[in-house]
Amino acid sequence: MGGRQSTLATPEMRKAAENDTSSWGLPPEDIPEDERTADELVLQTWAFCKAKPSPAANYRSDVEERKRRQSVAWRKRASFIELDCGEDSFFVSNTYKVVGVADGVGGWRDEGVDPSLFANSLMENAKLFSETHRTELNPEVILQSAFDKVVNDGRVRAGSSTACVVTLRRDNNNNNINNNNNNLNDNDSNKKDEALLDVANVGDSGVLVVRDRQVLHRVHEKVHGFNAPFQLALLPPRLRGRAFADTVADATRETIPVRKGDVVITATDGLFDNRFNTTLASDAGWIGQVSTSALERIPILGFFLSPFFADEKVAYVDPQRVAQRIVQDAYKVSIDAEAHTPWSSMLKKFGAKDAKGGKADDITIVLSRVTTREELNASNVW
């Protein structure tokens, strides 16, 4: 688990990464058998993001805003297109089995390069590849293919970003993953309600898996040093050898057994630097707790009824509101100079004894619940 490294050496993986990109995003010739199965486990997903404070964003013209929306029209879902993630990006595949996030490296602005372009292009390519190659659930292959297209298609001249791709697949062996975390093995659960979450993580974005509002597992990050995450990069000749340029093969690779009702938080470091894992698990876990609730089926009903319950967090019965509230809470902390945060805790470890406050940053969350395709279809997410 934890520290297991990835490889991209097999011919099959390389072949998938070198496929003709002209077919990407086209409807598949045939729907995979799994997608016809009512009890197949999938990721029902919502997303929200908020850019860090920026005077330029506050004074963006209507023309500039239309251009921004057009640049992320590939996200398809209207509620996703309207989101301004700053230098972050994300994707949700219409296979309901693949999601991802990326965090563009802001230093490129000093080179006259918009950091969001690389991150958005990488996530767009990952979405298109996963929707065309619907049976490919190796996150390394998806990420490598997406990165290769960024490098080769000429749309982005330079840039870099962290990247995290998550896939959900059937456990064909139905065997426990070899790991030392007893929380990941639950022998009395129903095997048909179990699957494997595969993660390829380059840098300090990450994944938090939640069960019963408790932390089940946090995927490891990978950094060169303080505030210097691993990153995929497209470098102009003059910067080659002088800037970080990691590869997909450098990704942290982890596999986590999950089951129906588990909640998966895939997010950029803007979230994890400002909110502790236990807090995120408690807040996001509500959408796992209420997965069979009538209120969840009809979110507007939950909206109107929640004020009448003693626990204000019954309002979380609408998962989109959960995602939005988590990001908004993190944003408030990120601009609070007195807050106790994971960021300030890390600063103390590096010698800043009196460190406190959040870290102003773009914040992106992709919030998923493991559920069946039958329940997904009944909820009409898209």
UniProtKB/TrEMBL annotation:
The keyword Nucleus does not apply. One of its GO terms (molecular function) is protein serine/threonine phosphatase activity. It is an enzyme of class 3 (hydrolase). It catalyses: O-phospho-L-seryl-[protein] + H2O = L-seryl-[protein] + phosphate; O-phospho-L-threonyl-[protein] + H2O = L-threonyl-[protein] + phosphate. Residues 1-36 are annotated as: Disordered. InterPro entries: PPM-type-like_dom_sf, PPM-type_phosphatase-like_dom, PPTC7. Gene3D superfamilies: PPM-type phosphatase domain. SUPFAM superfamilies: PP2C-like. It comes from the Eukaryota. Residues 70-370 form the PPM-type phosphatase domain. Its cofactor is Mg(2+); Mn(2+). Keywords: Hydrolase, Magnesium, Manganese, Metal-binding, Protein phosphatase. Its EC number is 3.1.3.16. Belongs to the PP2C family. This is Protein phosphatase. It comes from Trypanosoma theileri.
